[in-house]
Design goal:
Elements: H1 2-32, E1 40-44, H2 51-67, E2 71-75, H3 82-90, E3 97-102, H4 103-112, E4 124-140, H5 148-157, E5 163-166, H6 169-182, E6 187-190, H7 194-202, E7 208-212, H8 217-221, E8 225-230, E9 256-264, H9 269-283, H10 286-294, E10 298-299, H11 304-324
Parallel strand pairs: 1-2, 1-3, 5-6, 5-7
Antiparallel strand pairs: 3-9, 4-7, 4-8, 4-9, 4-10
Helix pairs in contact: 2-9, 4-6, 4-11
């Protein structure tokens, strides 16, 4: 009497499992809610041509290929990066607007402004540190300075007479750090971004500038500007004739720029994780790795937690430097 019941129960169980197997593929995609399902945009707080912009475009192209969705890069320069920051934070916190910032917007602003219209640690959720690269100290191609020593010697003789182009507050800090280490005094000429500062050097509107190497290497190789030093312990293979900062006589001036991806802190954690995965996949593409190797730039691809700690450490460092260089809070 019990056998038919057990057989029927076994049959119903098998039938239910079979139906579940059929239904699962139909419902799984909806449950996963695959991201992204439409085009995205990357907000860059600097003009086109900057190192941050170049990185944004590199990753936009790769992530577009990975997802099958377009990724548009929007440049929002000006206001010490505030315009780009507010554009990113005012967008819906759904993951479709990603902020591609740098040390200036994500760390140094916090050390140099009395009151920021945003907090880089609480308003943004970190996604990943993307890259870190040295700077170049550059002068116009027509400059009388052939070496860093010549530039510094003249600056010591004429305090305040020489001026430098500054593409952001980070470059101001770097240049003031150079002033402090070399015991010179030079005057800041602010620009909207690193690309504009480089153009200022090319036009000989300023005497020198500390700039992101990625945006200046080709111009230096082409003779449109002159590079006096590469701010790393070793020379760049792309500019083998340019001394490292150690060889140039200022071994402590290891000025690095970094680029990172972040999103509104209101974005869902699952979206942050998905974006981190996408950036990591894009960064591990052979052509992307080859590009950064050729640029003498370190590809980092950190976790969100590692990026957040790096931000905190940088803010502490820049606050100390701002005090040492006597930079007044803005």
């Amino acid at each position: 009497m019990q056998q038919p019941f057990r057989s029927r129960r076994r049959f119903l169980g098998m039938a239910a499992a079979a139906l579940a197997g059929i239904a699962a593929p139909l419902t799984a995609p909806a449950a996963e809610d695959v991201f992204p399902t439409r085009p995205m945009r990357f907000i860059v707080p600097f003009p086109a041509g900057s190192g941050t912009d170049t990185t944004a475009r590199m990753f936009a192209k790769k992530i577009g290929e990975l997802t099958g969705q377009g990724v548009v890069v929007e440049n929002k320069p000006g206001g010490n990066g505030f315009i780009g920051v507010q554009t990113a934070l005012n967008a819906p916190a759904d993951g479709y607007t990603v902020f591609i910032g740098s040390n200036s917007t994500l760390s140094t602003n916090a050390a140099t402004f009395r009151k920021l219209p945003y907090d880089p640690l609480t308003d943004f959720a970190p996604i990943t540190l993307l890259s870190r690269g040295p700077c170049l100290i550059i002068v116009p191609a027509s400059s009388p300075y052939r070496t860093l020593a010549e530039l510094l010697e003249d600056a010591r003789k004429r305090p305040g007479a020489l001026n430098y182009g500054s593409g952001s507050i980070s470059y101001t800090l770097y240049s003031e750090w150079l002033n402090e280490l070399a015991k010179i005094k030079t005057t800041s000429v602010p620009y909207k971004g690193a690309g504009d500062a480089i153009n200022g050097v090319m036009a000989a509107n300023v005497d020198f500038a500390v700039v992101d190497a990625t945006g200046a290497i080709e111009l230096a190789r082409g003779g449109k500007i002159r590079a006096l030093a590469f701010t790393a312990p070793q020379r760049s293979p792309l500019l083998p004739e340019v001394p490292s900062i150690v060889e140039a006589g200022l071994p402590d001036f290891l000025a690095y720029n970094w680029v990172a991806a972040a999103i509104s802190a209101k974005a869902p954690p699952a979206v942050v994780k998905r974006l981190q995965d996408l950036f990591t996949q894009a960064g591990n593409a052979p052509d992307v790795r080859d590009y950064y190797t050729r640029q003498s730039t370190e590809l980092i691809l950190s976790s969100p937690a590692e990026m957040r700690q790096y931000q905190k450490d940088e803010i502490v460092r820049w606050k100390r430097l701002a005090v040492v260089a006597k930079i007044p809070l803005q």
